[in-house]
Amino acid sequence: MAPDSGLRSSMGWLHTWAGVVLGSLLLTVFWSGSLVVFDREIDRWMQPATRLAAAPAVISLDRLVVPHAQRLAGAAPRWSITLPDRRTPVIQLEYQDAQGVSTRRFIDPYSGELLPDEGSWAATGFLFPFHYSLHLRWRDLGYWLVGIAGMGMLTLLASGVVIHRKLIREFFTFRRHKSTQRATLDLHNLTGIVALPFHFLISLSGLIIFFAIYFPAVIERLYPNGSSQFTAQAFGSYTRPAAGEPAALASLDAMRSRARNAWQGDEPYMLRVWYPGDSQGYVEVRRTFARQISMNVDRMTFDSSNAALLLDHRTAPIAGIQRFFSGLHFVQFEHWTLRWLYYLGGLCGCVMIATGMLFWAGVRRNRHLHQGMRGVNLVDAICVCSCTGLILATLGFFIANRVLPAEASWLGNKRAALEGWTFFLVWAAALLHALRYGTRAWSGQLMAIYIAAPMAVLLNWLSTGDHLLRSLQQGLYAVAGMDLMLLLLALLALGTARRLARGVAHA
Amino acid sequence: MCEPVRHWPFDRPWQRHTALTLRVVTAVAGGYACTVALSSTVALSLVLLADMARSDAVLLASMLGFIIYLALLLWCFAEPRLWRVGLLIPLSMTLDAGLQFGLTNI
């Protein structure tokens, strides 16, 4: 098992060590990624004020949104409106508040009423950025760590295929009743093979989304005067400075209908007003991608005071390929079957990564303890922390969302930030617990999941009145789905804990 | 094992560890530097030879960059002779110098 003794063994060495070093990072990215497939559904659960019926087909932005935007974000350098769709029943208004903090408010598309700020970043605001940046903003550290995980995943998949030559036979092998160790490896191979193309493409497309972060030097080389010129050419972004003279905003609805005509009936999904109230302001109108995989960058830019068309950009062919890979990763198209398959593929990846780490530790535990090596204890603790600990952290995040009072504030952190802190603190506590109790921490944390998950369901009922039967009856499928998944998680945790207890009793 | 076992060029543990560390660092950092140099070369060639728009060339070359990096990483661990892996560094420096020359003179 060394890099200079034949292809299979050198790939085996690479697979083993890249897996151990990157395993918990990969599991974090895969778990958050799987959840984020249903980010807007989780948002409904975490932001009960947005649990509304499907939005009407025709919405006037001039009447419903512009007054709110001018009142809330009149002084902001820009604000944007995202229109409702099948997964989001509300109009979304985003802007920077007076302190420069980016803020998101929701508007009821029927009444035009501004919904109360519930103080939660929810899944789209917390879990989604966590998936690609780990909330480590310092010098893009989080992006780079996730990038390393992505390249690591590609390397692991390629080396895994080399070492598991008998892919087909291994696919049909699952010796569930043999030793735990044997079953762990079989499960690793099964989940690895069944979703191999998915895992490869999801990692590659994730990297391709952030090509500008990972390969800035390529852009710098060909654009020595700065990357903004590249962004303008590749993605059609328009820019001009503000004039400092006031001017009224022209009709956004008229711009939408002009864009709709130019796009053969495709609706705009988002409008962004730059320098609102300025005579040199402009409005960017973006084309929907609900019915295609590619997240096109078709956009029309209008003058904000006289509505003159400034730029009509259509996605260029190669930019289209980059946007296709992005769309493949972001799953923003409307397709429920595929959405569930993405979710299952992601969870399959979690099982593959977790069983790989468990197998590594299982093979070495007794030998290393015998030799007096302590490293295996650390790997055991990291395994526990990145499997059950991560799930507990997520549940802590959901529970904090239901129990924190609206005006909660601690050490200068507002409610939304406190929810995020709960996630990280529960995770840290899980690591300490795992370091203290070693492999015995598994059953403790599994039982904690068994208690915490139904508690989240119960708290949702108590705080909003939407119990499972009612949300099913009223067609709140996002809320019902979230509750059902939490209950399923509790059952899985209980089953695993019992199986572990049996295994320990037999041994 | 019946197949002939290739021995390490250096047999002492500290020598083995040094060789391994060198290989990992070269694979990760040298592989990245080489990928950037290769991708930039590909992008510039696409502009000069295939008359592609600059932005499209950058996009295509960057996307290929991930595949290039993957291939280089795997090769760095599959190649038994460490000195060959080490060639990545002079290779990327040469490419970079060539690119600099090309960009300033064309």
Automatic annotation (TrEMBL), chain B:
Keyword terms, alphabetized: Membrane, Transmembrane, Transmembrane helix
Transmembrane segments: 20-46, 58-78, 85-103
Protein name, entry field: DUF3649 domain-containing protein
